[in-house]
Amino acid sequence: MSARPRGWRVPGWAVAGTLLALLIAGPIIWLPTSFIAEGEAFDQIAATLLPDALARSVILGVAVGVGTLVIGGSLALLVSFYDFPGRGILEWALILPLAMPGYVLAFVLLGQFGFANPLQSNLFGDGLQLTWIKGPIGATLVLTAVLYPYVYILGRAAFLGQSRQAIEAARSLGLSYGAAVWRVAVPLARPALAAGVALAVMETLADFGVVNLLGYETLSTAIFRVWFGAFDQAAALQLATVLVGLALMLLVLERFLRGRARYERQLAKGDAVEPRRLRGWKAVVAAALPSLLLAVVFVLPSIQLVAWSIETIFDGVVGSELVQAAVLTVMLAVVAALVALVTATVIAYGNRARPSRLGRTSARVATVGYAVPGTVVAVAVFSPLIWLDRRLFEFAESVFGADIGLLFTGTVLGLIVAYVIRFHALAYFAVDSRMGHIGSKLDDAGRALGADRSRLLAQVHLPLLWPGIVTAALLVFVEVMKELPATALLRPLGADTLAITVWESTKDSQFDIAALPALLIVAVGLVPVILLVRYSRRAGWGSIPG
Q: Which of 67, 247, 347, 526 allows an S-S link to 17, with CB 3.0 to 4.6 Å?
């Protein structure tokens, strides 16, 4: 046996980071084994439930992808290359729909157009019914309305990075200004637009609240129905695996479309494009259409939520259950954010302390949870948690003679595990991006002074990581506040969050009761949007963090 090299030490942070990343990714990676264990279960769902649910998911994903590309891309093009009255306000206000969860907008529309209690105060009056809201058309419109900002933000950043010289060169060849923008700027922004569409489609595949409220069954709702309706764990796991496969295929497609981005960016160097001033009816239309969209998607629904909330407060409908739901939601969001920060920091610092291909790969694999729906995460973590609870129960009973019950399954601990797996990517990318800005010379100087890796992290890196840590905490906090499917599947009995309170009330068409918790969720969701706007104004729209 060869002797260890002098000074050889186990790379503790690197090992810890790799193991933690694999632990986070484990439940998702484990999903395909359901076909090995109980493959015969898939034969039945493949012949009955899967074809229709898969087809609806694909159709909805394609429809929302096209809708967000058209709306988000057009708005980004408009505010980037043209100047008109109100442009300075609209360029940041068009991000606001990101704060509106799709299921909140869905139940507001249901309450407005013929599905609400007639005693409720509706902005557009009572009796107006639009039955097509329930179904594929309504689901497509709602999801497109709340997800187009993904395409808008990335498209806007890409367009503002365009070169004025490229546009002028196209015009010198005889093209009009609009034709030059279309023939030159749009192809250069294609990777960014594709990334925005991919994000929107992944959110569509992950959606449970909108499609459930509007009665359009997709793979996400099918998993929920199989889990709770048929109590068929194997079938739910296999449906979840199919949905993960769809999400991964979409990620591969997006990477393929973005593959030539670095070469296209070389063509975009030069002076920034100066927006062309619109006049007359063109200026009116350019200002009116985005304003109308913003009013329909965000302003009017928010006003309606406020009206219903005031009505329930004055009627004394709001009770202690809402306070308990708010407290539980905040507690879960805070704990999940703190745990996600710890996992993200350990993994990112482990890769920095001892870079390796295994470490980088495991870190990327650990972020896959954000690309899959909450229903999939809930189903994926349930079996490992059951196994762990059984082992802990047997150990406690054999060693201490104590009955400790279930520690993870059906408890808030299980929920927190699911939240961390689902939203770890948000924390990791924020922390890792910030850590990438810290020069390696600081590490070398600290090590030369005798500081070990732990001391370097505590005294050097954490103070410098603080902006990234705050950003990561806010992102995870807000997403946990809005999360519906994972909470619905794993929550303890009687422990409702604000999202569950909204969902339970809307199932019984009690839209006024659902209004106040929904308003609280929207208000909290505005926090990262406001921070995004402030960052973009400080750093420039061309450098919005992705």
A: 347
